[in-house]
Predict the structure of Co-chaperonin GroES.
Amino acid sequence: MADVNIRPLGDRVVVEPIEQETTTASGLVLPETAKEKPQTGKVLAVGLGRKDDDGDRIAMDVEEGQTILFAKYAGTEIKLGEKKVLIMKESDILGIVE
Amino acid sequence: MADVNIRPLGDRVVVEPIEQETTTASGLVLPETAKEKPQTGKVLAVGLGRKDDDGDRIAMDVEEGQTILFAKYAGTEIKLGEKKVLIMKESDILGIVE
Amino acid sequence: MADVNIRPLGDRVVVEPIEQETTTASGLVLPETAKEKPQTGKVLAVGLGRKDDDGDRIAMDVEEGQTILFAKYAGTEIKLGEKKVLIMKESDILGIVE
Amino acid sequence: MADVNIRPLGDRVVVEPIEQETTTASGLVLPETAKEKPQTGKVLAVGLGRKDDDGDRIAMDVEEGQTILFAKYAGTEIKLGEKKVLIMKESDILGIVE
Amino acid sequence: MADVNIRPLGDRVVVEPIEQETTTASGLVLPETAKEKPQTGKVLAVGLGRKDDDGDRIAMDVEEGQTILFAKYAGTEIKLGEKKVLIMKESDILGIVE
Amino acid sequence: MADVNIRPLGDRVVVEPIEQETTTASGLVLPETAKEKPQTGKVLAVGLGRKDDDGDRIAMDVEEGQTILFAKYAGTEIKLGEKKVLIMKESDILGIVE
Amino acid sequence: MADVNIRPLGDRVVVEPIEQETTTASGLVLPETAKEKPQTGKVLAVGLGRKDDDGDRIAMDVEEGQTILFAKYAGTEIKLGEKKVLIMKESDILGIVE
């Protein structure tokens, strides 16, 4: 989390997808295409929140470090050095895994 | 209900679908594909409600433990360990079964 | 009306469709497919009304027991024991038959 | 107008379409399909008006008995005994014929 | 303008299209289909204006008698006796020719 | 600018497109079809601004005489005597060239 | 940044895309078509912000000189002398690179 250097705008969050286990019971490693697209991720950075019609910020419901569930195909994929992260709107987050 | 560990965001609820009886009168067990998609479920967890334009929460109309009716194909299916649950918005809930 | 056990959410109502006469002048009973989809129904249950942007309820215009006209294909069909009922939004109701 | 027994909901009105003259100059009566769909009608009943976001009614601009112009294909056709009427929203009414 | 007998509803106006010159330099009269659809017209009647969310009228920007420019295919064509007029919303009016 | 006789309505502006140089380095004049559609123009006239939900005008950000950039295919083309002008909404203007 | 002469309107920003490295490890320079469309850019100019429903400006979240991430295909491409810049809305900006 230390080297994150994107400050998401508005009600956006930067999320690092958590890859599902790709080694099957028999020890086979599945190729990339056989893996299901992950729907859980760790929140790396949180925007300040969107502004309402009077220009006031609406506080965000998620915090840095939380593990979240998100809708399939949510967000935009961005390369952050070697790792791929997603920038999505808070409204694409379904829930927080506790 | 004890092992639920998803806190739904905003006006979302976590719902465990209630499978329709799949044993016919003659005792035949219907295969998965012959079953109608369930439209009733038990509410496992309830979000804090969506925020209105001033950032205030609007209270939810459903509570944990209630049996609800929901629109076909409502929500996103999530695997919660072995069981499949749905995360849907309160607006997808048609009514409460009493 | 006594055995209704669905409490519709928000501005939804539970409606029991009133089947059109299906016996023709000559006494023939028309098969199901030849019947026109009914557009009148009896209101079985009424929600508390939708919440406005401040979270206040907006009162409903229909009441339990009224006969209503509704748009074709309005609402979601739900089986309530043996009978089929519709859950629809008040905005799908065209008028009240007096 | 005496036997109207539908109370339209919200900002809806019940309109009886006025059939265009269907006898041509030469005295021929045109068959149903050759007639242009009428776009004028008499207002039979008027709803109380839609509720604004605070739940207050917004008064209607049309009154029972007025002759109106409406957009082609506006409204839902309903059989009122023998005659066919239209239930439409006030926003589908283009103007009042004076 | 004297015999206009339509009172447009809300923010609508009744407009009489001004036909473009259809006689060419060489004196040929162009057939109907070769004429460009007119985009200028004379305002015959003006509605009282649409109601805002509190039910108050918003005053109209155009007046009876003005010549206006309007978007192609704007409005609904209505026969007013022998002449064809358009009923359009004020938002379809691009500008006033002075 | 003197002979402009269209008063644009609401938040619309009348813009005279500025043709890109069509003479190439070698002196060739490019035919019409080879020219890129211009995206800069001079503001000939400015509306009073759109009305907000209370009926108050919202002031315009552009002024007569300014050179503007606009989105391709923005606005409606109108013939003003011999010259073609565009009537577009202020929201189609990308920026002001200074 | 000195020679920028576009003042973006409303909540728009002028962005100079930052080309990705196009020289591969082996020293090959990739042709234009093989390059990925850049998704980072430098903010050259910032609008005054959009007006809310009361006509008040909502302050912008980005500043001149910042490096931003933006959605693929965001904005409109404009030639500014020799260089191509993008004019986009602030809502197309995903985050600020720090």
